[in-house]
Write a structure and sequence with these properties.
With 179 residues, this protein is mainly alpha-helical. The chain contains five helices and no strands.
C-alpha cells in the first residue's frame, strides 16, 4: 500500500472512531433525556443548522475540479466565517442556559446535552484551527499531492461534522421541542 493511501486509511479510521465517540454521546443523551419543553430555542438551532449547511456547501465548492487558489481561499474564508458564526451562536446559547440556571451541574440531562453539543463545538473549533493553519501553507507551497490530500481530509472532516449536527438538531432540538 502506498504511503498516501495509508494516510487516507488512517484518516478514515480516525473518522470512524469519531463516529463511535458521537454514537456513545448520543446514546448517553437519549438514555438521560427527559422532556424539557421551551428550554431550547428551535429558531436558533435552525439558524445554526442553516449556517453549518451553508459552510458545508462552501467547503465543497473549494475543491471542485480545476481548483484555483482564488476559489480555494474565497470558499474556505466563507467556510471559516460561517464556522465562527455557528460557534458564536452555540456559545451564546450555552451562556443563556447557564445564566438561566441550567448548567452541566444540574443533572444528567444537562450534563449529556452540554457534553454532546460541546464536543461537536470543540470539533468545529479544531476544524477552524486546521483551516487557519492549512490554507496559508497551501498558498505558500501550492497544490502539491500532500497539500491536496490534507485539503480533502479537511473537507471530509467538515462534512462529517455537518452530518453529526443534523443528528444533534434532530435528536436534541427537534425531539426536545416536542417531547
Amino acid at each position: 500500500m502506498h504511503a498516501s493511501d495509508m494516510k487516507m486509511f488512517g484518516f478514515w479510521v480516525y473518522l470512524m472512531t469519531d463516529c463511535v465517540l458521537f454514537g456513545m454521546l448520543f446514546a448517553t443523551y437519549i438514555v438521560l433525556h427527559r422532556p424539557l419543553p421551551g428550554l431550547f430555542s428551535l429558531p436558533l438551532a435552525l439558524t445554526e443548522t442553516l449556517v453549518l449547511l451553508a459552510s458545508s456547501f462552501s467547503c465543497g465548492l473549494a475543491l471542485l475540479p480545476k481548483v484555483t487558489k482564488t476559489r480555494l481561499v474565497t470558499c474556505f474564508a466563507i467556510t471559516f466565517a460561517l464556522g465562527v458564526s455557528f460557534l458564536t451562536m452555540e456559545l451564546t446559547e450555552f451562556s443563556r442556559l447557564v445564566a438561566d440556571g441550567h448548567s452541566w451541574r444540574h443533572g444528567g440531562p444537562f450534563t449529556a446535552f452540554f457534553t454532546l453539543v460541546g464536543t461537536h463545538g470543540l470539533h468545529i473549533t479544531l476544524g477552524l484551527i486546521w483551516m487557519a493553519a492549512l490554507i496559508p501553507t497551501v498558498l505558500k507551497q501550492g497544490f502539491t499531492p500532500t497539500s491536496m490530500q490534507r485539503l480533502y481530509c479537511l473537507r471530509l472532516f467538515w462534512h462529517f461534522l455537518d452530518v453529526v449536527w443534523i443528528f444533534i438538531f434532530t435528536i436534541v432540538y427537534m425531539m426536545g421541542a416536542y417531547a
